[in-house]
Amino acid sequence: MLKNGLAQANTNHLCKIIPVAVLLLMLISLYGSWYTIDQGERGVLLRNGKIIDTAEPGLGFKIPLMDTVVKISTQTHTANYQGLQAYSRDQQPATLRASVTFSIPPDQVEEVYANFKSIDLMVSRLLDRQVPTQIENIFGKYTAISAVQERIKFGIDVTDAITKSIKGPVTINSVQIENIDFSNAYEKSVEDRMRAEVEVQTQLQNLEKERVSAQIAVTQAQAEADSQLARAIAEAESIRIKGNAEASAIKIRAEALAQNQNLVELTKAERWDGRLPTTMLPTGTIPFLEVQTTK
Fold first, then answer.
1. Do the beta carbons of residue 182 and residue 144 sit within 8 Å?
2. Rounded-to-integer distance, Cα 55 and Cα 232, Å
3. What is the pTM of this model?
4. Which H helix or E strand runs over 21?
5. Residues facing 72 on adjacent strands
6. Do 172 and 164 touch, CB atoms closer than 8 A?
7. Each residue of 38-54: pLDDT tens digit?
8. Which string of DSSP letters, residue by residue, matches 247-271?
9. For residue 57, what are the contacts with CB-CB under 8 A and spacing of at least 6?
10. Does 3 score more than 60 pLDDT?
């Protein structure tokens, strides 16, 4: 009787467990049979650990308990590098800070998973090995001052070098050289040199200003001299013309007087005011009165 009771109890217990297990299995199958991939991602579909497909963004379905989906981001990522040590062509030590912008091509997510499992491991094995080396190599081709003055070109050269050196499922979009920090002694020498160059440029500007001022003064003096000369020439010409006119008038008048003696008397008469002199000498004559005698 006791054994029959225990068997009956076990049977009842199993009857309660089996429906629960079936329900759990159904729930697991229900929720494990679909997946979603966000925009900006791709899914690597695995069946028992083997890659069988690449999942596009949206809703997808898989076999529960057999298939799994690993999501790989295809958006833009940035890897930062601090404290990179390098020497310039003129043997100036510098500490650089750079950032590398990269992305995973959507059609290469399977390769990323197959070779690296994740983006972080890919960055560690590909970028972290090449970026410091290439930056150091390219920086060594520039002098300290040219690396600063030609910073855009320096960044382009570094980007090209890193792009060519990295072989893998990654696209290098750009490399930014965010900072170049030289030694304090070198930076002070640069400041002193720049200050000296500024002073030289200032002196050159002052000399140019003085030269222009002197040129202006010379031009003004020349213009004043030309003006005075022109006035003198004009005045001399005026005097000459006036003198010639007066001489011509005197000559014409003399010729007229010589040809007509009565004109002299007429001129005297025209200029006489009609009054006789109040004082006369005994031997004097009355002016303008000439008595004609008849023979």
1. yes
2. 102
3. 0.57
4. helix 2-31
5. 42
6. no
7. 999 999 999 998 999 99
8. HHHHHHHHHHHHH-THHHHHHHHHH
9. 37, 38, 39, 40, 41, 42
10. no
